[in-house]
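Reminder to self: tokens first, then the designed residues, so the page reads top to bottom the way the pipeline ran.
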């Protein structure tokens, strides 16, 4: 069997002729489904056009940009960009950060209060029983200190038609729990034993292992500023394109880790 010929390396000049006019570029962006991305970034450019940065801020932005992109600031090389283009990219990032703060910073306290119930994070141990009286017995044994959750579930399994499922949930935001489980856990404290509560086909007991009360710290502040910026962009995009605005609340694990 003959070896297939190795494709030659494609050069930039081989591609550019197909993007030789505005119409061809626009058609390509739309066919590649990149047009919404271009609109978003153009909208951001317009929004930050009046943002002014000091020389110190620009210098700090360059250091941060190089570190984030693993670029040697003394001999910078990054994806074919010129040095001027790299500095422009760094400046754009700091200007976006300033725009977020100036535009949405004053909204953060109220927005944080509205989101706090979803930002609080819990780690739970859950055991589910088919019969309520068995769940009540397990709860009694745990509260009296006779047995742990796992021990009570195991010892009472024969009375419940099989070993009840025991699992740990979290840590994750309260907003990601089911409505019934969130209602059971809301307002509790670490160490609390809760239930039994009928959730679906099971009588559920919950032990709250950890409960982390959300605070408007640096990390949360940045996350909420990003949310507010994305919501504003989505509203602008919806107005420009005529489509309904999308919900832009970030996944709770995406930035909280």
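Designed residues (257 positions):
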């Amino acid at each position: 069997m003959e070896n297939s010929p190795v494709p030659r390396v494609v050069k930039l000049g081989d591609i550019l002729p197909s993007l030789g006019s505005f119409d061809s570029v626009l058609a390509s962006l739309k066919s590649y489904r990149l047009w919404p991305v271009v609109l978003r970034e153009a909208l951001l450019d317009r929004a930050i056009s009046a943002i002014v940065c000091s020389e110190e801020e620009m210098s700090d932005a360059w250091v941060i940009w190089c570190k984030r992109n693993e670029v040697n600031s003394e001999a910078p090389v990054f994806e074919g960009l010129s040095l001027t283009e790299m500095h422009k990219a760094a400046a754009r990032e700091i200007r976006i950060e300033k725009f977020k703060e100036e535009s949405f910073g004053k909204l953060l306290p109220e927005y944080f209060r509205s989101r706090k119930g979803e930002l609080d994070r819990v780690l739970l141990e859950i055991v589910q029983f088919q019969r309520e009286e068995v769940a009540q017995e397990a709860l009694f044994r745990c509260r009296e200190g006779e047995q742990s959750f796992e021990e009570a579930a195991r010892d009472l399994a024969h009375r419940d038609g099989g070993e009840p499922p025991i699992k740990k949930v979290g840590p994750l935001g309260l907003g990601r729990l089911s409505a019934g489980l969130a209602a059971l856990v809301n307002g509790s404290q670490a160490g609390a034993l809760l239930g039994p509560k009928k959730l679906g086909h099971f009588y559920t007991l919950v032990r709250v292992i950890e409960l982390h009360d959300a605070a408007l710290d640096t990390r949360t502040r940045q996350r909420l500023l990003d949310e507010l910026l994305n919501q504003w962009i989505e509203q602008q995009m919806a107005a420009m394109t005529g489509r309904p605005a999308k919900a832009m609340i970030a996944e709770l694990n995406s930035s909280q880790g």
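The mean pLDDT is 85.
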